[in-house]
Fold this sequence. Notes:
85% of the residues lie in helices and 0% in strands. It is an all-alpha fold.
Amino acid sequence: xxxxxxxxxxxxxxxxxxxxxxxxxxxxxxxxxxxxxxxxxxxxxxxxxxxxxxxxxxxxxxxxxxxxxxxxxxxxxxxxxxxxxxxxxxxxxxxxxxxxxxxxxxxxxxxxxxxxxxxxxxxxxxxxxxxxxxxx
Length: 136
């Protein structure tokens, strides 16, 4: 790859990452709004599940992107980089999932925290596989 192609790829990853991060933020804000509307007694209880939804969506989309664009070259390879590394990387969030686990532990819901870790990893891999199968 030439220096110009690397620069373009970096720019596209940044754009994709910004869009993915904005989508994740939007999902969390929507969930927070719904929590407030329903006047939940413990509105923080929904937050880990919103993170899980964002991570599952990112894994599923990544599977579809890899199946469709994973072995491409040229302009399609740049689209692959923007969508896989950028968008899916911005949409998914290991750091927020880790903080969700810490919050679950702090609240004394130890079994739920362990289940959340296992559910996140297991369903994430399942969603990736499903995306690969559907798009292939």
